[in-house]
Give the backbone structure.
Amino acid sequence: MKLGVVILAAGQGTRMKSSLPKVLHPLAGKPMLEHVIDCARELEAQQIVVVYGHGGERVRETLSDADLIWAEQAEQLGTGHAVEQAMPFLQAVDKVLVLYGDVPLIQADTLKTLIASESNLSLLTVKLNDASGYGRIVRDAYDQIISIVEQKDASPEQLKINEINTGIMCIEHAALSAWISKIENNNAQQEFYLTDIVAFAVADNVNVLAVHPESESEVSGVNDRIQLAALEREFQQKQAESLMRQGVTLIDPKRIDIRGDISVEQDCLLDINVILEGDISIGKGVNIGANTVIKNSRIDDHVTILENCVIENAIVGASSKVGPFARIRPGTELLGNNHIGNFVELKNARVDEGSKVNHLSYVGDSEIGKTVNIGAGTITCNYDGANKHKTIIGDNAFIGSNTALVAPIKINQGSTIGAGSVITRETPEDKLTLTRAKQITIENWKRPVKQPK
Ligand code: UD1
Ligand code: CA
């Protein structure tokens, strides 16, 4: 069976009140439409056609993967008209699955059931306590589906129906071709309703079937930012539950946000307000403190990250301790057993095993050997106003507090740098180097006293 997927994404989304097309608004850090596309990919479709309209160029640019076909719907004349724009690209498929770009939480398993349903027309429907706004599923005395009626066209009796059309449906291709050409726009909204095909199918003696999603959120659409925020919470809750099932302790599953792909091993503990973004892998027994943000990074086994850290595009090697209030910027690699303390900023720094930068330091564009101790307030002066330069520090070096290392610079292994030094030349191995002025004491010096008036 060859499947074609049509994703309707031409709607304006005026209620978002945004210059960004609705389907590009992110859910868990990823455009809504991309969630739908990723779900469609799980179905191994022959073709995925995205029907775009308003703001379409921006949508295409943002999601320009080679496996997508773009069909323009210049004017939004209705869902039937939208699907029609995709038909020229679907000639080689057996079934057509219609999805909505603004229904981001749809699950592949539900769609597989819908696709497998043995009918030329299968609808995804759901019963809602409040069905207002939706198309209603009209059934006959034998409980057979006979039509879908839109809210604006429904009789008072039909408005009482609580089974609604989610809009997602799967249709046999040849039948769809025939039905779609028969759709007219003589209805309350003067739109070409895709839903009209239900009555056509019944007239052709097709037994229209309904399939139901596991949860309502799967078929919830986003029309405004309030609904988007509600779905974001649903999605985050699901991800939190999945982490807990994998053996992660979450102090409060409602106060963690995952915006990306994360892999995590057992016995990790994540405190409140942790945000994980992009590609993240976390080893076993890792503790992450409150208010920490981690993007695109690898955190190895038994690392402890204390509160309020920001870590981006970095590797934190096993058994390291980071924070509180540390900032680890792109290109940083901690090789293991490192201590990175409060108010320390690392950027593009490779720090070998056992080395410590515990307080108030900036270390950038640096290579630091094993068991080095970088004293409080050490600054690598890596930037001369035009270019960046490198700092190299050998194994077992000890950098005294408040030292400026003016790069390019090499501190050889075992060097000790006296506190308060400004180091501009390579320092010898295993010796004390310092640049500080000699301490003197002025004899007979008196503190000034207030002059009498
Ligand atoms: C549609 C269904 C309704 C269903 C509801 C579920 C029809 C006639 N009605 O109604 O039965 O209960 O969805 O949410 O199908 N779109 C286009 N081009 C268009 C019109 C719409 O691409 O010309 C896209 C929109 O971007 C959106 C989707 O199709 O993703 C649905 O459009 P919308 O206007 O929200 O449909 P409803 O009138 O709510
Ligand atoms: Ca509409």
Summary: The longest strand covers residues 163-172.
